[in-house]
Amino acid sequence: MSEIEGPLERRSSVAVDVGGVIVGGGAPVVVQSMTNTDTADIDATVAQVAALHRAGSEIVRITVDRDESAAAVPRIRERLERLGIDVPLVGDFHYIGHKLLADHPACAEALAKYRINPGNVGFKEKKDKQFIEIIEKAIEHSKPVRIGVNWGSLDQALLTRLMDDNQAKGSPMSARAVMREAIIQSALLSAELAEQTGLERNRIILSAKVSQVQDLIAVYLEMAKRSDHALHLGLTEAGMGSKGIVASSAALAIIMQQGVGDTIRISLTPEPGGDRTKEVVVAQELLQVMGFRQFLPVVAACPGCGRTTSTVFQELARTIEDDLRRNMPVWREKYPGVEALQVAVMGCIVNGPGESKHADIGISLPGTGESPAAPVFVDGQKAATLRGPKIAEEFQEMVADYIERRFGENGGKPLERAG
């Protein structure tokens, strides 16, 4: 049997400093998100940026589409600083970005990065001129840029030229392949123009977003062959709910498994009234299950079957997960290394005791018809048996006590496992 290999070594890319967060150059993959508030609504935008940051977003992008939103940016930055939130803000510019940056220098200074879409930065003879004006503002304020191509607003002149060239050659490439090539060339040619204008290579991040999984994989893997720029990954218009989560995870997992990608965003359409922070949670969970980063302790829980007609183990697993996520901002500072904790909440005798022994701390709840007792295993050894109506509360207390003993005074060094 062949040996199963892990992820390929991270592709070498140029490191970019985005407001103190390093993207690329071998740094851990960065989690990014974007607000969906009207940026001119300072209260709403500050609240959502704060929520996204608390959820784990390390960079937050905001829309800068008109004078009112540009004028609000420095005030948003000030409000966040007063709250003790120093997350880098990225300005998302389309159509009139060159004008907004020129007319609102305080906005240009308050942002940590500018996002430019070469497909709609300007049209015809104005395209390169207005692109260069934004790059010059980035140089003036010492800011990095993300050159973000999107197939929904692809440079039509470039696409048309490539289609015509392909047809003149007897159409050796499919229309889909030509479109992918246009996306890649749009990013690389724009980066080349930015460097010719004077922007350092270590201030450029590229992205090339499409909404189909196979197209995204093909575009990014090919672009990585042609460039050492830091790359931002994301499946655009991924969709709502499980479809968006599955599509984004499938595409990004394959790309990152090949060592490609330096920062990611999961572009989920929120359910009506839904929580915007869901995209941050999904991004963290993807990086964690792939083994690239560790954000939260792992909670293993069985899926349930006919042996587990009670919902007790499901409720306990959710309670433990919610408790860990809620406390992590404090625990991460208080208990170094707590992200490595492994907890098991199992529902019956079939796999319960064995899975619990594999975890740092685990509980095996009684299944249907089993004795109403719940053995708890700590570091591989049975430590207690819980009974009665307060099993959940007692196990939570044991988890908190274990965290304190292992990661508190012990300085984050794992206790030796028994057995």
TrEMBL record:
> What EC identifiers does the entry list?
1.17.7.3
Metal-binding found in the keyword field: yes
Instruction: List keywords of the entry alphabetically.
Output: 4Fe-4S, Iron, Iron-sulfur, Isoprene biosynthesis, Metal-binding, Oxidoreductase
Q: Which cofactor does it need?
A: [4Fe-4S] cluster
- Per the UniProt entry, what are the Gene Ontology biological process annotations, in alphabetical order? isopentenyl diphosphate biosynthetic process, methylerythritol 4-phosphate pathway; terpenoid biosynthetic process
Give the record's pathway: Isoprenoid biosynthesis; isopentenyl diphosphate biosynthesis via DXP pathway; isopentenyl diphosphate from 1-deoxy-D-xylulose 5-phosphate: step 5/6
Cite the binding residues for [4Fe-4S] cluster: 302, 305, 348, 355
Superkingdom, taxonomy of origin: Bacteria
Q: Name one GO molecular function term.
A: 4 iron, 4 sulfur cluster binding
As given in the record, the signal peptide range reads none
Query: Catalytic activity annotated for this protein?
Result: (2E)-4-hydroxy-3-methylbut-2-enyl diphosphate + oxidized [flavodoxin] + H2O + 2 H(+) = 2-C-methyl-D-erythritol 2,4-cyclic diphosphate + reduced [flavodoxin]
Annotated transmembrane regions: none
Q: Which InterPro entries match?
A: Dihydropteroate_synth-like_sf (IPR011005), IspG_bac (IPR016425), IspG_bac-typ (IPR004588), IspG_C (IPR058579), IspG_TIM (IPR058578), NO2/SO3_Rdtase_4Fe4S_sf (IPR045854)
Recite the UniProt cofactor note for this protein. Binds 1 [4Fe-4S] cluster.
Q: Show where the IspG TIM-barrel domain sits.
A: 15-283
Query: Is S-adenosyl-L-methionine among the key words of this record?
Result: no
Tell me any Pfam family this protein matches: GcpE
Give every IspG C-terminal domain span. Answer: 299-400
Q: What class of enzyme is it?
A: oxidoreductase
Job description of the protein: Converts 2C-methyl-D-erythritol 2,4-cyclodiphosphate (ME-2,4cPP) into 1-hydroxy-2-methyl-2-(E)-butenyl 4-diphosphate.
* UniProt record similarity statement: Belongs to the IspG family.
Full protein name: 4-hydroxy-3-methylbut-2-en-1-yl diphosphate synthase (flavodoxin)
